[in-house]
Amino acid sequence: MSDExxxxxxxxxxxxxxxxxxxxxxxxxxxxAGYRVHLYDxxxxxxxxxxxxxxxxVNKLASKGLISDDPSAVLDRVKLVDGLGSxxxxxxxxxxxxxxxxxxxxxxxxxxxxxxxxxxLASNTSSIPISRIAAVTQHPERVLGLHFFGPVPLxxxxxxxxxxxxxxxxxxxxxxxxxxxxxxxxxVKKDIPCFVMNxxxxxxxxxxxxxVAEGVVSPEDVDIGMKLGYGWNAGPFEIADNAGLDTWVLxxxxxxxxxxxxxxxxxxxxxxxxxxxxLGRKAGKGFYRYTPEGKRVPWDQED
Length: 303
Description:
The protein contains 11 helices and 10 strands. It has helices at residues 21-32, 44-63, 71-76, 101-114, 130-134, 168-180, 197-213, 219-230, 236-243, 245-257, 269-275; strands at residues 13-17, 36-40, 78-81, 92-95, 121-123, 143-148, 157-162, 184-188, 288-290, 296-298. α1 crosses α2 and α10 (245-257) packs across α11 (269-275). The chain has 2 domains: 13-188, Rossmann fold; 198-294, N-(1-d-carboxylethyl)-l-norvaline Dehydrogenase, domain 2. The chain is α/β, with parallel strands linked by helices. The protein is globular, with a radius of gyration of 19 Å. It starts with 12 loop residues before the first strand and ends in a 5-residue tail after the last strand.
C-alpha cells in the first residue's frame, strides 16, 4: 500500500527556481502532492534533464507502490517556463539555485517585485542566513528557509527556517506546507549560518575529510563505519558525492565569508578534486566512481 500523504496542493501553483538535483526533486514532491509546478532555470538543457529525471523517479516510485497517482498525471503538473513571470500567480515560490549570495539577492529582489505580498518566498539555501537574503526585499516578513535534503523524493526531512523578520504566520505556513508534502518539518527558530543539521553534519564531515586526506582511512571505510556503528543511512562521503562536491566548495566559501571557518576542515582535498572534475555522482566520479548504470564503486576498484 502507498505511504503517500493526502494531497494538499489543490491545484495551487508553486514556482521552483533552479532545475538542478535539488530543484528537480522539490518540483517532483510538490507535483506528487497535487500542486501545479512551474520549473525555471537559466539553462534550458538543465530544465529538460530535470524533467527526464522526474519522469524516471515517479515511474520508479509508482512501480514500488510508493505513490498512488499515475506517473503521467504527476508529470502533467510540471511545466517548464522561461522566466519568473508566473511568480505573480504562485501560492509559493521556492528558490534552489547555486549557493551564491549575489545570485540569490538578484532573484529575490525581482521576486519581491513580481509576487503578491501574500506569497511566501522560500530559499533552499543550505548555509546563507535567511535574513541576509530577505534584506534585499521590501517584504522580508514573507521570506523563509525551506531547506530540503536530497534526494528530495526519498528524504523525509525539511528544515523550516525563520529569518529575523519572518512573520510567525509565514513560518507556520511553511511548517504546514512541508507537512502537506509528506515531509517532516524541523523548526529552526534562530537564523544562523548553515542552520542546524548542516552544522552538525559539517562537524562530522570536517573530521572525516581530514582523516582521509591524512591517509588514516579510506572514504568507503568511513562510510561503512558510520552506517554500521552509528546507524547512518548513508555515509558522509556518499552524502557529499550525492550533493555535488562543487556545491560543498561553494558552501565552504559561504561559511568563510560568514566567519564560520570552524566548520571547515584543514584539507584542500575537495577543492583539488573539483578542479580535477571529480564533482560527485553527477559527474560519474567523486570520492567514488559511478558506472553508467549508476552503481557506486570505490575509486581504486575495477568495475
